[in-house]
Design brief:
Blueprint: H1 6-16, E1 50-51, E2 57-58, E3 61-64, H2 91-103, E4 109-113, H3 120-137, E5 143-147, H4 154-163, E6 166-168, H5 176-182, H6 188-204, E7 223-229, H7 236-250, E8 254-259, H8 276-292, H9 297-301, H10 315-322, E9 329-330, H11 336-339, H12 347-356, H13 364-369, H14 374-377, E10 381-382, H15 397-401
Parallel strand pairs: 3-4, 4-5, 5-6, 6-7, 7-8, 9-10
Antiparallel strand pairs: 1-2
Helix pairs in contact: 2-3, 3-4, 4-6, 7-8
Length: about 400
């Protein structure tokens, strides 16, 4: 095989990393290099091609250490049986790329994942060496997110947590049965054990000794996980139920849903069940409602008969259309619980409503200034100078929000 240049490796391994869902750096320890003793900074908000609260777009170098892999997971483009171009970075190459990209102001951090090469321990050891060199030799203070390998030795994951801001361990698929069918070399029990160890180590790092000393911070931005959606037949109720258990059991910062799309050499064992990207979008919306809007799982997933989310409208609107008897809600009298269920009202808007109505009566035009999406909300609320009348119970209300039908091409 011809020797690959660094640019060729970067092209292959940065493209391969797009299948790894990444996350923001919120919650991490604030660090900077203004004292002149280090390199880089960690702003503590939105990394990974996201937008910070001040509007800045900040990004990170997102790569695989290698896309060689000894596993043969059916849904993975980098599985051992896949016919794709392969590449592998050395430890020093990743360190130098990160430092040089930072100095050129291309990035503010590193997101590092990898296929498993030789063994889980050998692969995890190299990833830890990269983080160690960045922190201790290059004095790099930027954000580091490591995708860890659950089968690796616990001491390697423990060291990774002392070096990285965030760790993530993939649960792979929504159910153990799906993992057994499509990724038989991976063991759900071992994945859960590794996630539990990260949680326990993070909690232990908060405890102060009798002498008043605080232990080193462990994964200060927490841990997250990724779930492949659409590679098996699990419905959305199953997916969201698993997510709810993961948040509760391991105190995750985020569950990332990764839409599966068939790849050119994919086997016929993986039929595409539902449109993947739209489904992924709806799952994120439902996840948000469960975490921040006090919705219950059965409320969101009982809207349709098959336990799947409505792909045409968002989950809150789908619930409201089925439960019109709760509406319209009077914004001047309604409870916080019901205001949070109004389509077009976000948490900040509801907080502003509750604060303002203590001092005066709210009118329709006030709601838009508070951030409400009134094109959606107007059918479900009453306010000073506004009543939806029969609009709430209108037979064609759903049609106002659902996308219009399209003529599909015959060719």
């Amino acid at each position: 095989m011809a020797v690959q240049t660094l640019e060729q490796k970067l092209a292959i391994l940065s493209d391969a990393a797009k299948y790894d869902a990444s996350c923001a750096s919120s919650g991490s320890t604030r660090r900077d290099s203004r004292d002149g003793t280090g390199l880089g900074s960690n702003e503590g908000s939105g990394i990974c091609h996201a937008y910070a609260p001040d509007g800045r777009c900040i990004s990170l170098l997102k790569i695989l250490m290698t896309n060689f892999c000894i596993y043969d997971c059916s849904y993975c483009i980098n599985r051992v049986s896949s016919n794709v171009a392969r590449a592998r970075f050395g430890v020093d190459e990743v360190v130098n790329l990160t430092v040089e990209f930072y100095r050129r102001n291309y990035i503010e951090g590193l997101f590092l994942s990898s296929g498993v090469i030789r063994s889980p321990d050998a692969t995890m050891s190299d990833m830890v060496r990269i983080a160690r060199k960045l922190r201790h030799e290059e004095n790099f203070r930027g954000y580091i997110h490591l995708k860890t390998i659950p089968d690796a030795a616990p001491e390697l994951i423990a060291e990774a947590g002392l070096l990285a801001d965030r760790l993530s361990i993939n649960v792979e698929l929504p159910t153990d049965a799906a993992v057994a069918q499509y990724a038989p070399e991976k063991k759900p029990a071992q994945i859960r054990k590794a996630m539990a160890d990260v949680r326990l180590r993070k909690e232990a790092a908060r405890e102060i000794s009798f002498g008043g000393k605080r232990p080193p911070r462990f994964a200060p931005a927490g841990q997250s996980t990724q779930m492949i959606i659409g590679a098996d037949g699990s419905n959305d109720a199953t997916v969201l139920g698993q997510s709810t258990r993961l948040y509760s059991s391991y105190k995750l910062k985020r569950v990332y849903y990764s839409a599966f799309s068939p790849i050119p050499d994919s086997s016929s064992r993986l039929p595409l069940v539902r449109p993947p990207l739209q489904r992924e979008h709806r799952l994120y919306q439902a996840d948000w409602l469960l975490r921040f809007y006090d919705f219950q799982l059965d409320e969101i997933t009982s809207v349709t008969a098959d336990g799947n989310l409505d792909l045409e409208v968002d989950p809150k609107l789908a619930w409201a259309l089925v439960h019109r008897g709760f509406f319209p809600v009077d914004v001047n009298r309604g409870s916080r619980e019901m205001l949070l269920r109004v389509p077009g009202f976000g948490v900040k808007t509801v907080n502003r409503i509750l604060t303002t109505r203590r001092h005066r009566t709210l009118r329709y035009e006030d709601l838009g200034r508070m951030g409400a999406a009134m094109k959606k909300a107007r059918s479900f609320v009453t306010a000073g100078g506004w009543s939806p009348g029969a609009l709430t119970d209108s037979a064609n209300l759903r049609a106002r929000f659902a996308p219009p039908p399209q003529q599909l091409s015959l060719f």
